[in-house]
């Protein structure tokens, strides 16, 4: 390494040997060094490629041997067979394990919550929807934060309406209440057309998606003690907390059928939606889109993004304890199939994109297949997912368990939403 650094030092010195001819503004690079520079760049890029291959595997044959914790055996070795045992023993213990090692605690206590309708339009979307912009103000120990919930309720369909809530970290333009911007990332018009209320909130209202500012809002204001704890709440947990406050509102709005509410998230939002669904049994459907590492994908496969990489790049998403599993996945007492299992028997939908290998579509499907055994073996819901990864754009819609792989890149698109709505139609027996 030292040798490489010395070569590179020399080369950079030469690279920057310019001769400037002020008179005619010509800049001339010392060409006799180009051969050495080219050699050096080639050397460096092959070193980076080597490192890349080592750290991020995209080769199925290089997935390590692994064994996964069993959903049906409790921590003290008890066999889990009945819904009673699942709901009172295994599921709570799994949620606790995810709190301790992955996402951190999710404090649910506060002193007061108030909802204010700050803007509405009963003729939104050309009369098809009732727009409500609601400020949700939460107070604890004399301090308060406010998050904004955006909601379009269909006007021309039966009410109360089932609802899809999107947790979003992307440009707020994606959830434009004026609808001057209509982006397929949140196709509110299509949802309304199909009789669903479209709801969304931006994560920056509860915890900014930035390592420098994520503590502002709920962490410093409402739950500062969490920041001192190794298993304290961090960014993803705060976003799940936000989704739960949106649910608090749905339960009070007579236009919304809160018993038919789906929480949806893309990528980092998908990790948060899974955590929401595992924590909060009020959600009828939990949807994860391209959630990958720390979301639906099995960590032990080490395919695409790894725990070490995600903790390094996004140190504010997971609780501090998650760092213990950097390059140490086998030591985890859980894997992500058990997060999916924790959502059972409520419905779960996992969506992937064919070109999104970073998020490991196969690992996401395996996790869904293994986690969804709970529906079958504990609740007797006939779900037995195939061994093979389903074909691209051949959705698999079983009772309570949905899956598809969209053709294309890492994104949330109209195709994905249409499948989520098909699945909800089937679950709620709507046309
Ligand atoms: C990536 C990150 C993923 C995923 C994604 C996203 O950079 O590595 O885990 O969350 O961002 O949120 O789009």
Overview of this protein structure:
There is one protein chain. The chain has 431 residues and is of the alpha/beta class. It is 33% helix and 21% strand. The chain has a ten-stranded mixed beta sheet with strand order 3-4-5-7-6-8-9-10-12-11, sandwiched between helices. Strands 1-2 form a two-stranded antiparallel sheet. The protein is globular. It starts with a helix and ends with a helix. Residues 1-32 and 49-54 have low confidence and may be disordered. The structure holds beta-D-galactopyranuronic acid. Residues 267-268, 292-293, 305, 310 line the site of beta-D-galactopyranuronic acid.
Structure in a nutshell:
The protein has 431 residues and is of the alpha/beta class. The protein has 13 helices and twelve strands.
Which descriptors apply to this entry?
alpha/beta, Rossmann fold, 2 domains, 12 strands, binds beta-D-galactopyranuronic acid
H/E element order: HEEHHEHEEEHEHHEHEHHEHHEEH
Low-confidence stretches: 1-32, 49-54
What would you call the structural class?
alpha/beta
- CATH topology title of the largest domain: Rossmann fold
Q: If classified by CATH, what would the architecture of the largest domain be?
A: 3-Layer(aba) Sandwich
Bound molecules: beta-D-galactopyranuronic acid
Shape: globular
| Cα-to-Cα separation, first versus last residue | 65 Å
Sheet with most strands: strand arrangement: 3-4-5-7-6-8-9-10-12-11
Number of domains: 2
CATH class of the largest domain: Alpha Beta
DSSP strand tally: 12
User: Over the alpha carbons, how many angstroms does the gyration radius reach?
Assistant: 24 Å
